[in-house]
Design a protein that fits this description.
The protein is an alpha+beta fold. It has 2 domains: 75 residues, Glutaredoxin (3-Layer(aba) Sandwich), CATH 3.40.30; 84 residues, Aminopeptidase (3-Layer(aba) Sandwich), CATH 3.40.630. It has 6 helices and 9 strands, in the order E-H-E-H-E-E-H-E-E-E-E-H-E-H-H. Strands 5-6-7-8-9 form a 5-stranded mixed sheet. Strands 2-1-3-4 form a 4-stranded mixed sheet, sandwiched between helices. Helix 4 links the parallel strand 8 and strand 9. Helix 4 packs across helix 5.
Length: 177
């Protein structure tokens, strides 16, 4: 059985939409056509309670019904099947990377034309793996070209930023922290 199963009907526009999304991401999947395959209809009934509740995904056995694309990407990332990359969630004022155990994120606040990076969080079970440093580096590479002022108040992020002279200048860190 495939890691990703899409339950639906090919005549359904939403099913075709999700097929295109999976193909765009280069992900193999099973299309379980509930209108043509009684076994697919039975499996969807077991998963969702009805053979008409589609489109529905089974991603490594977990149900996801009619998701928005960001929610599909998150589910695929948490299942270890897809990496949507660094996500800038402006509404929540966070940079996020979806991960299997828990999402990693850097929080910030905007103060006029200034962005203040305030906190980084990575799953505690990954401490010492270097993941936090790699994640902060990715975020700093994302924000370093922004024209507005960037400040860093998180001690861990300040340590990572102090490793490059251009970051020490951009983020106004002075000498090595």
């Amino acid at each position: 059985m495939a890691d990703i199963t899409l339950f639906g009907e090919v005549r359904c526009p939403k099913t075709r939409f999700y097929q295109a999304a999976l193909e765009e991401r280069g992900l193999p999947y099973e299309l379980a056509e509930v209108d043509r395959d009684v076994d697919a209809a039975r499996r969807l009934t077991e998963l969702a309670g009805s053979p008409t509740k589609f489109p529905t995904f089974a991603i490594k056995g977990r149900k996801l019904r009619n998701p928005l694309l960001p929610d599909l990407d998150k589910a695929l990332a948490r299942a270890g099947l897809y990496d949507p990359g660094l996500i800038h969630d402006e509404h929540s004022q966070r940079f996020v990377r979806h991960m299997a155990s828990a999402d990693a994120f850097v929080s910030y606040v905007c103060q006029g034309d200034r962005m203040v990076l305030t906190h980084v969080e990575v799953d505690g079970s990954l401490r010492g793996s270097g993941l936090g440093t790699r994640f902060v580096t990715e975020v700093l590479e994302e924000v370093e070209t922004r024209p507005h002022e960037i400040r860093i108040t998180c001690p861990f992020m300040r340590r990572v930023a102090s490793t490059r002279p251009e970051w020490r200048r951009k983020f106004n860190l002075g000498e090595r922290v």
